[in-house]
Amino acid sequence: MHVQNVDYASPDAAKHFAQSLRETGFGVLRNHPLPNTLIESIYRHWQAFFADADKHVWRFDPLRQDGYFPPDVSETAKGHGVKDLKEYYHVYPWGRIPDSLRGEIMDYYRRAESLARTLLGWIEAQTPSEVARHYREPLSAMVEDSEQTLLRVLHYPPLAGNEQPDAVRAAAHEDINLLTVLPAANEPGLEVRGRDDKWHQVPCDPGQLVINVGDMLQEASQGYFPSTTHRVVNPEGEACSHSRLSLPLFLHPRPDVELSQRHTADSYLKERLKELGVL
User: Any idea what the CATH number is for the domain that residue 195 is in?
Assistant: First the structure.
């Protein structure tokens, strides 16, 4: 399985990026416009947040789905019976964010969302006409005025050795949204399942971005761009004592967007959140 590592500044970047998404559901970008110093600073500051008991003051709102999600309410991947070994915080521009963290994380949110919109434009431009005719509206228009795009600050705690059998940091799953933008985490562990049904590490050096197709783009493109199964495996040896932080931005369309004859973005999202046990 060959996930292409594409130079964002290259004249043919859009072509190779879309080709990688078509073939694998994933692509890696280098020389992109998101500052690595900003990402590293976010990891440091949110590591401190997750280490502080005051994080529970920011416990999530079940209706709004913003705020802090502790490990005991973490997601259970579809088809998996054990909760993932993680905690996380949902960042929305309209949501609750600690004042000391707001400026930096919202700066990143705006930058990452802008990049995601650009990449969605690349995908739209590289979609064959026979596939693009199935789009109910241009991909770029689907995210206009959307308040659903989610930035998730993920913390995978060190392993204590007494974890429930079969519990992993993130069990095999697909993303729900249109497109996911993911900076290189501070620790390895991300794997993708190839067409050979084998698991492959996603190579992503510090300062690079992993981009993957979500179920909503797969639905809108009638499967032309595949939403590929991926997971985060548990570390081994000395690495078990390390935290892992990750910062995925999930680009979402407006709730009223028609993805296909059978789904709007809203109906699709609610169906999947119920399957995950968080709604």
Answer: 2.60.120.330
Q: pLDDT under 70 in the chain at which residues? A: 1, 277-279
Look up the domain containing 191 and give its range. Answer: 5-276
Local structure of residue 241 (DSSP, 8 states): G
- pLDDT tens digits along 210-244: 999 999 999 999 999 999 999 999 988 898 999 99
Distances (CA, A) of 140 to 120, 182, 219, 230, 260: 6, 20, 16, 25, 16
Q: For 259, phi and psi rounded to 5 degrees?
A: -80, -35
Q: How many domains does the chain have?
A: 1
pLDDT in tens, 177-191: 999 999 988 888 899
Give pLDDT, residue 3.
Answer: 87
Report the run of H or E that residue 101 belongs to, with start and end.
Answer: helix 99-126
The tokens for 185 are 């985490």
Half-sphere exposure of 169 (CA within 13 A, CB side): 26
In contact, 50 and 87? CB cutoff 8 Å: yes
The span from the CA of 5 to the CA of 213, in Å, is: 15
